[in-house]
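Query structure, 160 C-alpha cells:
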C-alpha cells in the first residue's frame, strides 16, 4: 500500500507505523508539483499554454481540479533510504524557493538532481502524461515520457 501526500511527506510516519502494525508493506512517496512537463511545444515551435480547468465550460472538470495553471503533479515513490532523503531534499528546495505566497514547483533540473532512489509514475488526470496528451497530443506525450526516462532512467520510471 502506498501513501503520497501533495508536496510533502506529512502522513508518512503515522502511515508507516500503522502499516507495520497491520503487517502491510508501506510505500512512501509524494505527488510533487512540477512545471517541467506541462507546457509541451507544438511542432511549429510555439509553446502551448495549459488552460486551467476553471477556464473551461465544463463545471465537472473545474470542480475536480485544484491544479494551478501550467502545472502537473508527478507521483514519486521512495525505493530506498537515499530516495527518502532525496524526496525530502527536493520538497524542501521547492518550498524554500517558493516562499510564502507562491506555490512550490520542481523544475526538471531539481528532479535530475534528486532522482536517485525514487521511482517516477506518470500519474493520473493531473500527471505529466495526461497534461501532455491533453494539450499537445501524442507527440507531446512521447516527449514527456522521453524526458522522464532521461531523468529517472528506465528502471526508475514506470509509465502507469
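Result returned for the query:
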Amino acid at each position: 500500500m502506498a501513501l503520497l501526500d501533495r508536496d510533502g511527506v506529512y502522513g508518512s510516519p503515522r502511515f508507516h507505523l500503522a502499516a507495520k502494525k497491520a503487517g502491510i508493506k508501506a510505500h512512501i512517496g509524494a505527488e510533487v508539483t512540477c512545471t517541467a512537463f506541462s507546457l509541451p511545444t507544438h511542432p511549429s515551435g510555439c509553446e502551448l499554454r495549459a488552460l486551467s480547468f476553471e477556464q473551461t465550460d465544463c463545471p465537472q472538470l473545474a470542480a475536480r481540479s485544484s491544479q494551478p495553471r501550467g502545472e502537473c503533479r508527478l507521483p514519486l515513490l521512495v525505493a530506498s533510504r537515499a530516495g527518502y532523503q532525496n524526496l525530502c531534499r527536493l520538497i524542501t528546495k521547492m518550498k524554500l524557493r517558493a516562499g510564502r505566497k507562491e506555490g512550490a514547483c520542481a523544475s526538471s533540473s531539481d528532479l535530475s538532481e534528486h532522482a536517485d532512489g525514487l521511482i517516477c509514475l506518470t500519474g493520473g488526470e493531473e500527471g505529466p502524461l495526461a497534461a501532455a496528451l491533453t494539450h499537445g497530443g501524442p507527440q507531446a506525450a512521447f516527449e514527456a515520457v522521453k524526458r522522464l526516462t532521461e531523468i529517472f532512467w528506465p528502471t526508475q520510471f514506470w509509465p502507469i
